[in-house]
Amino acid sequence: MKPIITLLYSPCASTSSLSSWPILKVALHPKPEKPLHRPPPANRRTPPPAFPTPNSLTKFLSLPAKSSFACISTLLHTTRTSTAPTLSSPSKPAPFTLLSNFNASVAADFYGGSPLIREFCVNVETEQSLEITFTPAKDAYAFINGIEIVSMPTSLYYTGSPKLIGSRNLYPIENNTALEMVYRINIGGGSISPNQDTGMYRSWDAPDDVYLDDPSRRFSVLPQNNTIILNFVKILEYSAPKAVYVTGRSMGMNKTINKSYNLTWVFPLDPEFYYLVRLHFCEFEADIINYGDRSFQINMANQTAEELADVIGWSKGNGNPVYRDYVVRMFMPPVGSRKKVDLFLVLAALQNDSLTSYNDAILNGLEIFKLSDINSNLAGPNPDSPSYIAYDDITLNCGFSGDSSYDNRMWIGDINSTLSIEEQLEGSQVRNATPSSQLLLPPPSAVHHSTHFSL
């Protein structure tokens, strides 16, 4: 069984001084004689426990903590929990490191808000249980808002050996590989909630235009067909929701314009890892029915993935969803002070009119997964922090109303009342905070807790 492990963080539940982890790991152990979570009878479904919304609860950890789950290979199930019993086992664990020195606040800033969700896939054999260990950094706390574990079909993402971009070789994705979902996007459509997924409770983000370059944002179009009957003859129906395959993004109807630009998405990724890139396609426009009607080129990381991509050729018909898997190496160094490297996904119209009827390209959905390295590691660096503007003449004691003096500096507060004018003048990116007249923060020389931790 290969469960999907989803970790939910709501950085707003804590201040930035409380949320760093050095290590987050998962380990596989022999299953205990008595399962920790019993499956419900086959003839009925147990309603989920009446937990509050996950991001309204926070579990803070100042010492290493473990959560253990008995995984039942024959049952599709979901587990949401704040705490779980510790599983002791004499066997030696074979852990994956999922997160290291992870700062939820910095990550939330980079990815555009809260809550922050981390999704992982690991293989768990029938006689094994899954153990998740949270280890806070020194003088820091780890925290977690929710854990969700969903079993998935073995063939969903572990599908053999995709093409390795830039090589003639294939890249086998085997059971000893862990995956981290980095991007899952419904291209050209709306967001898809977990309840609208195909049973794996996945979230599909939208819109995709935030990842487009300027020409693509200006010229590309969003075709859709909500009346087409989809036929899952080439892939299994649970591969993606039907909503993914009835919308998309294409280059447009003007051949001249299409030949003048490339449909390009840019995705920041952690360096020094291999990535699985899954592209979802479906031809649903009435004019695209034959081989060669719409053929195009696909490039990734400045390498050719497909010289002549033809969705009709892959799917064998209009209205037939299909996906293509590729593995790409992101081993180039970051530019300047950046911690991320950019993956350029480029769809290019063919310049030769004899090779296609419509010089156009289309994409319906996209998933990108980080693959664990030879050390069973998925942890990358924290993303780049936003550029906060330093004030020369103003020092803020956040959460305190009034003035106070420390080490020859005047601290004034609170942050909201002070920034109402200064933020307009300076364009500051200091985050909004709830005022409080009850809290007096210690002077800058005092010891502050860090917010880094690891998984």
Commentary on this structure:
The protein is mainly β. The chain folds into three domains: 2-152; 179-371, Galactose-binding lectin (Jelly Rolls), CATH 2.60.120.430; 402-450, no CATH class. 8% of the residues lie in helices and 32% in strands.
In the CATH scheme, what's the topology name of the largest domain?
Answer: Jelly Rolls
Instruction: Provide a count of the helices.
Output: 5
Number of strands: 24
Structural class: mainly beta
CATH first level of the largest domain: Mainly Beta
Strand order of the largest sheet: 5-10-1-7-12-21-15-18-11
What is the element string, with H for helices and E for strands?
EEEEEEHEEEEEEHEHEEEEHEEEEEEHE
Overall mean pLDDT score?
Answer: 76
Fraction in helix: under 10%
- Mind describing the biggest β-sheet? 9 strands, mixed
According to CATH, the homologous superfamily of the largest domain is: Galactose-binding lectin
Low-confidence stretches: 12-22, 32-52, 69-93, 388-397, 414-450
Radius of gyration: 25 Å
- Architecture (CATH level 2) name of the largest domain: Sandwich
Question: How far apart are the first and last residues' alpha carbons, in Å?
Answer: 21 Å
Whole-number tally of structural domains: 3
**Which outline best applies?**
globular
Q: Strand portion, in percent? A: 25-35%
Name a few traits of the molecule:
455 residues; mainly beta; Jelly Rolls; 5-stranded antiparallel sheet; ANXUR1/2-like; glycoprotein; transmembrane receptor protein tyrosine kinase activity
